[in-house]
Amino acid sequence: MSQLSYSCTDIGYLLTSSMFKLTAFSILIFIALGNASFIEKSNFTKLTSKEIDIWDLGNQTDELATDAVNRINGGRPVEQIVPYQVSLQVHRRGRYHHFCSGSIISAQHVLTAAHCLTKMNPNEISVVVGTLTWRNGGDRHGVVAMRSHPGFSSSSLIINDIAVLKVTPSFNLARTSISTISLGNRARVGDKVPVRLTGWGSLTPTGSTGLPERLQVLDYHTISNQECAQRGFRITANELCALGERGRGACVGDSGGPLTISNGAPQLVGIVSYGTATCALGRPDVYTRVSSFLPYINRVISSEIP
């Protein structure tokens, strides 16, 4: 969470051996140059198994980012469990690793970004809920099925970046630390709306320090799609943009996570999708607009993977 965190990175780091470790959190799963008219963009990627191995080999002491000055780049640590927030994890080299976030939308379903599931099988993924720290605590669930939007693309444009996971066993929604989040209705969120991002994304613009153990939160505002386009993003009506001042935004590890508004209770309005290749440069963060996909979500959880 670099800011809160989306994952973006400069491919040039691959050319410098001294920066090789950095690529574990900064190299994109795919580079969305097609979405930018003049700004290089990328998904707030999940980590590939190769990147996880590279990070492990370069971090045998397993140190976590703790610099209070750089916390979430304008954000702050969360003090209370966010009951709908999940950590998507893979098991590599004898331990679990966070690679994306998601939101609980039913007793058995999680909403996340489609790009998080690229080249993944359900049996590789586990879902951790009911905790502030992705490494410890909470309940771990397996994934038995997943559906990425059939129109998802990351080639010329990143579009339809949304997916649903089905877990086993069902979430224990009787616990106060675990709950679903409202998806609201088809009403579109406009500009200048206060929104909140939560996630375990990198605290630094390049992801060089790894991921924070504790959940982070960032409060900022939406901007209009027109302004987002003027700032260099080729978005569609099915995306939503938010913007903070320089040093505040999403980053590596925030992908798939929730952007919410408060209408008495939290409402999910966005899913972390992509942003600039280096995080928190005063450029917009782009989210999948949840209200545009309510029919798709309802179809998946009611008939495709009920």
- What count of helical segments does DSSP give? 4
How many strands appear in the DSSP assignment? 16
CATH superfamily: Trypsin-like serine proteases
User: Tell me, what is the CATH class?
Assistant: Mainly Beta
Helix and strand element order: HEHEEEEEEEEEEEHEEEEH
Mean pLDDT: 82
The stretches of 5 or more residues where confidence is low (pLDDT under 50) are 3-39, 53-72
Largest sheet: 6 strands, antiparallel, barrel
Rounded Rg: 17 Å
Helical residue percent band: 10-25%
* Protein structure class: mainly beta
Number of domains: 1
Distance between the termini: 32 Å
CATH topology: Thrombin, subunit H
Task: Name the CATH architecture.
Answer: Beta Barrel
Q: In percent, how much strand structure appears in the residues?
A: 25-35%
Shape: globular
Oligomer: single chain
Features:
transmembrane helix, Thrombin, subunit H, six-stranded antiparallel beta barrel, 4 helices, single chain, disordered N terminus, six-stranded antiparallel barrel, disulfide bond, serine protease
